[in-house]
């Protein structure tokens, strides 16, 4: 019985990853760009996350985003979209801005989520150098 259940799961997974014409569906890849990547403090960094390539999969439709800024701060964007319909295009570009007031090397991570599942993760590094007037910690 367990073997039958495991086989059924594999068949369902295979069906879910093929298109109506039987072709294999490809997952999009998530890229993240930070501008500027190096700056003096204080600085606002603009980030663009982009789903690149892949098919218009329902799993990637209307995701929530979780931004981890690398300085202890996090931001969450919940999604609120109409129901998915075949042929609907995915939103592929997401942007955010974050301010860094202190020098440091920061690794920024964005996670696309849907139904409490992580779909894709991307990261970028930002180097912030001490700017004029920055008070260094004792």
Keywords:
138 residues; mainly beta; Immunoglobulin-like; five-stranded mixed β-sheet; three-stranded antiparallel β-sheet; 8 strands; elongated
Explain what the structure shows.
The chain has one helix at residues 2-16, and strands at 29-35, 38-40, 43-52, 64-68, 74-77, 93-100, 104-114, 117-129. The model is unreliable at 4-16 (pLDDT under 50). It contains one helix and eight strands; from the N terminus they run αββββββββ. It is mostly beta strands and 138 residues long. β4 (64-68) and β5 form a beta hairpin. 12% of the residues are buried.
Rg measurement, Å: 20 Å
Residue stretches low in confidence (pLDDT < 50, at least 5 long) are 4-16
Strand order of the largest sheet: 2-8-7-4-5
| Annotated CATH topology | Immunoglobulin-like
The total domain count is 1
* CATH class descriptor name: Mainly Beta
Biggest pleated-sheet summary: 5 strands, mixed
* Number of DSSP-assigned strands: 8
Beta fraction of the residues?
35-45%
Give the full name of the CATH homologous superfamily. Immunoglobulins
Query: Which series of helices and strands comes N to C?
Result: HEEEEEEEE
Helical content (DSSP H or I, runs of 4+): 10-25%
Secondary-structure-derived class: mainly beta
Please sum up the structure shown.
This protein is mainly beta.
Set down the secondary structure blueprint:
Blueprint: H1 2-16, E1 29-35, E2 38-40, E3 43-52, E4 64-68, E5 74-77, E6 93-100, E7 104-114, E8 117-129
Parallel strand pairs: 2-8
Antiparallel strand pairs: 1-3, 3-6, 4-5, 4-7, 7-8
């Amino acid at each position: 019985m367990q073997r039958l259940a495991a086989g059924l799961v594999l068949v369902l997974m295979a069906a879910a990853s093929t298109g109506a014409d039987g072709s294999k569906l490809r997952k999009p890849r998530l890229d993240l760009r930070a501008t500027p990547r190096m700056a003096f403090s204080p600085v606002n960094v603009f980030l663009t996350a982009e789903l690149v390539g892949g098919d218009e999969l329902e799993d990637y439709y209307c995701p929530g985003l979780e931004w981890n800024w690398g300085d202890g701060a996090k931001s969450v964007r919940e999604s609120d979209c109409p129901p998915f319909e075949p042929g609907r295009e995915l939103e592929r570009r997401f942007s955010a801005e974050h301010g860094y007031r202190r020098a440091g090397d920061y690794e920024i991570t964005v996670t696309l989520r849907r139904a409490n599942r992580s779909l894709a993760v991307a990261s970028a590094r930002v180097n912030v150098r001490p700017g004029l007037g920055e008070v260094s910690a004792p």
